[in-house]
């Protein structure tokens, strides 16, 4: 796919900016249920082994020293670092359980630690976790895998950055959110420009392949001017990737958000102005607009994967290794093994109790039907590549696209009339005005949306 110009159309945004899934999976997590059987898991593992697909490993570290008031992650707030010790022991136990059930000779092409705050762990604990992972699974030793972790800049030193590189990590994601002191105080998240600059220099000194920085717009006291100032400071550091997330204020779902002063939240119109400014600024600075809230330099692996038609989405967002089966470990972690999603218990008490009893910590999941896999392929092509070739889907799934998706194609007609996309009898191409609204376009192919009318999703923009 060639990089299309981005078009901001306020009238279309006003018309189509509804609530909808982020499509980090299809079907999405609200469809998961507790009826997954041991036989379902056994058969999915057998199909995975037979495929000989490479593996991706995710480890969830739920702990944070302090709470960020905007956070919607599964986390445990504690300054008691001793709590990590029994958690890691159970995490090792869960990994051993899986290693005994799957062909571990397959290479691990992707590794990711998320949270919470993975760097809540000491370097010694992180070393033990990586060593344990290497002892069980076939990690690359030549720096060819994509091995990443998320860091809170205020909790990490340049020496730690270098120590993590020695462990095999070659990509960092820094959660900056905002550099404005007033905003940081309002959300209880602090990291200075000086701290981030020192970490960035340390990462470049030891040749990390990619440095990603995360920002959030829509936080208390933010304005177009303040977000622009933060962007100035971030762009001076020239990250390889940049994410610009929309803050979704949902205190009815995430109680910690009640600590924010709602009166200080920017109005919806001003949030859109922030986003418009940021996209325009980043694209003028040479970043490729990957989609939704992701940007990357043209030579970054993420942009190259999109250009080659190989981009993918998973529970960490846009990714480059869609060919892998995902093994996820830790509280709330979600695996995808062949056509089966598995999610661990969200409450650490339940996660602990299952492993202490010698059982699997899986709480629920979803076994995809052929229709689910077909719709997933369609949605992933659209959200990753912004175009869809019907012939490829027909060949892969043995269908007549126009017959199978007649209702969905009819639902796209008004979007075509509004200039979001072009639709022929053989192809869908998302136009520049539709790129920001890609989630709304994908919803036309989602079989579960009618049943999700009461499901509360974040707004598309």
TrEMBL record:
It comes from the Bacteria. Its main location: cytoplasm. The keyword Mitochondrion does not apply. SUPFAM superfamilies: Radical SAM enzymes. Pfam families: HemN_C (PF06969), Radical_SAM (PF04055). It is found in: Cytoplasm. GO terms for molecular function: 4 iron, 4 sulfur cluster binding; coproporphyrinogen dehydrogenase activity; coproporphyrinogen oxidase activity; metal ion binding. S-adenosyl-L-methionine 2 binds at residues 70-72, 116-117, 177, 189, 214, 248. GO terms for biological process: protoporphyrinogen IX biosynthetic process. S-adenosyl-L-methionine 1 binds at residues 58, 115, 150, 334. This is Coproporphyrinogen-III oxidase. The lineage of its organism: Bacteria, Pseudomonadati, Pseudomonadota, Gammaproteobacteria, Cellvibrionales.
């Amino acid at each position: 796919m060639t990089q299309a110009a981005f078009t901001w159309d306020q009238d279309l945004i006003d018309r189509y900016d509804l609530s909808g899934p982020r499509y980090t999976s299809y079907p999405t997590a609200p469809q998961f249920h507790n009826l997954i059987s041991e036989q379902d898991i056994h058969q999915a593992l057998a199909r995975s082994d037979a495929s000989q697909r490479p593996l991706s490993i995710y480890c969830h570290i739920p702990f944070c020293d302090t709470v960020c008031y905007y956070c919607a992650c599964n986390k445990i707030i504690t300054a008691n670092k001793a709590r990590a010790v029994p958690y890691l022991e159970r995490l090792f136990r869960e990994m051993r359980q899986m290693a005994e059930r799957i062909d571990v000779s397959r290479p691990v092409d992707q590794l990711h630690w998320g949270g919470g705050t993975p760097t809540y762990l000491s370097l010694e604990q992180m070393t033990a976790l990586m060593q344990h992972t290497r002892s069980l699974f076939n990690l690359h030793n030549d720096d060819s895998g994509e091995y990443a972790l998320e860091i809170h800049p205020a909790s990490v030193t340049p020496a730690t950055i270098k120590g993590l590189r020695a462990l095999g990590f070659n990509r960092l994601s820094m959660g900056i959110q905002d550099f404005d002191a007033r905003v940081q105080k309002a959300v209880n998240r602090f990291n200075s420009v000086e701290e981030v600059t020192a970490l960035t220099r340390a990462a470049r000194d030891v040749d990390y392949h990619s440095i990603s920085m995360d920002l959030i717009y829509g936080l208390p006291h933010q304005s177009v001017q303040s977000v622009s100032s933060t962007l100035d400071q971030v762009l001076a550091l020239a990250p390889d990737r940049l994410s610009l997330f929309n803050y979704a204020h949902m205190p009815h779902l995430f109680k910690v958000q009640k600590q924010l002063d709602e009166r200080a939240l920017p109005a919806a119109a001003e949030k859109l102005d922030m986003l418009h400014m940021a996209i325009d600024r980043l694209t003028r600075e040479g970043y490729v607009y990957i989609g939704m809230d992701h940007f990357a330099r043209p030579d970054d692996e993420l942009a190259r994967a999109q250009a080659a038609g190989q981009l993918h989405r998973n529970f960490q967002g846009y990714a480059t290794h869609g060919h892998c089966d995902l093994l996820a470990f830790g509280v709330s972690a979600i695996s995808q093994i062949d056509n089966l999603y598995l999610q661990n218990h969200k409450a650490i008490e339940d996660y602990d109790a299952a492993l202490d009893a010698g059982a699997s910590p899986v709480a629920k999941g979803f076994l995809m039907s052929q229709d689910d896999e077909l719709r997933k392929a369609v949605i992933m092509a659209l959200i990753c590549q912004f175009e869809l070739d019907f012939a490829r889907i027909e060949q892969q799934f043995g269908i007549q696209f126009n017959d199978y998706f007649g209702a969905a194609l009819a639902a796209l007609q008004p979007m075509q009339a509004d200039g979001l996309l072009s639709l022929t009898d053989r192809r869908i191409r998302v136009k520049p005005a539709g790129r920001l609204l890609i989630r709304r376009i994908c919803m036309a192919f989602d079989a579960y949306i009618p049943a999700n009318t009461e499901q509360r999703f974040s707004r598309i923009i």
